[in-house]
Every structure is written in C-alpha cells, then in structure tokens.
Amino acid sequence: MNHPSQLDANGRLRHLLTLDGLSRATISALLDRAEALRAQSRGGTVPLSLLRGRTVMNLFFEPSTRTRTSFDLAAQRLGAQVINFDIAHSSTVKGETLLDTVHTLEAMHGDAFVVRHKESGTPAHIAAHLRSRAAVLNAGDGDHAHPTQGLLDALTLRQYRPDFSTLRIAICGDIRHSRVARSDVHAFATLGVQDLRLCAPPELAPTAGEFPQCRIFHDFDEAIAGVDVAIMLRLQKERMQAAAIPSEADYFNRYGLSAQRLHRAAPECLVMHPGPINRGVEIASDVADGPQSLILEQVANGVFARMAVLATLLDADTGTANQA
Ligand code: NCD
Asked: In whole angstroms, what is the distance from residue 44 CA to residue 270 CA?
C-alpha cells in the first residue's frame, strides 16, 4: 500500500499505521511498555503525567465503542488533553475535505491524530500530507489494519501463554473484511507463532496467497481441532454486498463457537473476540461469558496497549522503548 514509512531515519516509530513489517523487537518493546505502564499506573488507577501539555485528537469516521473510549482514556491517563472530534457536527458535513480538516486541527497544535475510517489507507494518506510533526495512529482503516488491536490481543495472550512458539491459534469468521485478522496475523507471526489457522466460509475467505503464514480452512470443526486459542470475528455486514451475507442461523450452525464445538479444541482453550460480539451468530452467549473467555480482559488491555503506543510516539525522550 502506498504509505510513507512509519519509521523515521533512525528506525524509530513515527506513526503507527500497520504492524506489517515491524520487527519483533519493536512489537515486543511496545508490549513491554504496555506492561510497565500498567504497573506504573497501578492498573490504570493512578494518573501519569508523561504526556502533560500534549494534545491527542480522535478522528473517528466510523462507529466505535472500545477503540475510541480506550484511546481517550489512554491519552488522559498519560496526562494529555483529548479532543474527540465530532464528525456529525463538524464541517465535514459542509463538504470540507479530510485534509483541510486535518490541516485545520494541525494549526491548533494537535500532537497526535487517532484515525478510524472506512477507506483502507486513510491514516497513511493523512500521514503523507501532514504539515507538522504530529503522529498518526491507525484506529482501524477499512479491511486493511487495526494495529492497536493486534497489540492488545498479543498483550492479552502473552499474559496467559507466554511461549508463543508452541501455540496453535485459529482465527475464525469474516476474514476477508477483517482488519483485526490482518493485524493479529502480523503480530502473532512476528512474535513466533508457528501454527496459525484462518477459517471462513468460502465467500468470506481471504484472497489466495494473502496469508502465506497461515493455513486456510472452510470447515470450522477441522480448524478448531486441538487449538489453544480461538479468536472469533463478527460478520462485517457493513463491508459486504447483500448477496454475500449468510443467514445468521445457518452461519451459527457452521461457524458459530458453541460450548460443544469448543470441546474439539485443546482443554482450557482460550476464547477471544475483538468485539462488538453478536451473540448467537459467531459465538454462543455461554462461551462468550464462560471461564475460557478473555473478551473483557482484551478490553482492559486495550487501554494499556494504546498508552504504550501514545507514549512511544509522543514521548521522544524515553529512547529505549522505541528502538526498531
Ligand atoms: C473491530 C473493528 O472495528 O475493526 N472492533 C474493534 O475495534 N474492537 C471489529 C469489528 O468491528 O467487528
């Protein structure tokens, strides 16, 4: 994809647009920093002042609950000021272009732009046209990437299964439209996972050759056999043509994670989902709320993963956490 390097001339992170191409050391340093910030802030209960005087601007052109709230909290818990740009009541509805909006906010000295957009490549486009030293953080662009989700998923998993080299992970659902799947694969493969399985109905499968690191399945019972981690994804109907949308009941029968199906996985298989979940479609309620589910832990870790990225991109003086 056409985007400027997210690394500067010294190999330090300047923007976070994708996990694709980041080194294992860079990803591990971000996860270590998230853990350090969790400890330093006593689980988020003690405010920090690392980013005092800095301004983080959230620009969400698509709906969001978890990602937007956790970026907001992450910035505030580091002492930054946060502007949640209200698209519906902004000059965007009067026809102002995206770049004019960004340049306007840059003139007010935004230090970071957190961008979610339905078009893949929008955060990179903004990064390429900045007029200031601001950092751009991708909060999900089309079906391309959701790097902080990949980081928070790796952070969550690492707490329970520190040795990634022996893990068997299945990611199941609407892979074709999933930026989460793409960023998870980049994170897990870079961190050493050898057995990565992607499972989707043929009409929602990735294009051939897109994931050389993964085995592709269309049969969920085969894909989930013996796995240590099952990551379930929502059907992203907003990115589908009407004809490609399977009926929900049929989908649950073939691809839903029920308690019965979970028995095919390894004992104590961990269950993850980026949210929002559709109960009874890709996951049964008793599994989503059950003892193997890490769904709310993922949410909690989202704040620390985003604190780590903001601190790394904006706090130029800390050095060590930002080595390539
Ligand atoms: C995901 C997203 O928006 O990409 N949600 C999230 O950020 N936690 C997944 C989805 O919408 O299904």
From this structure: 24
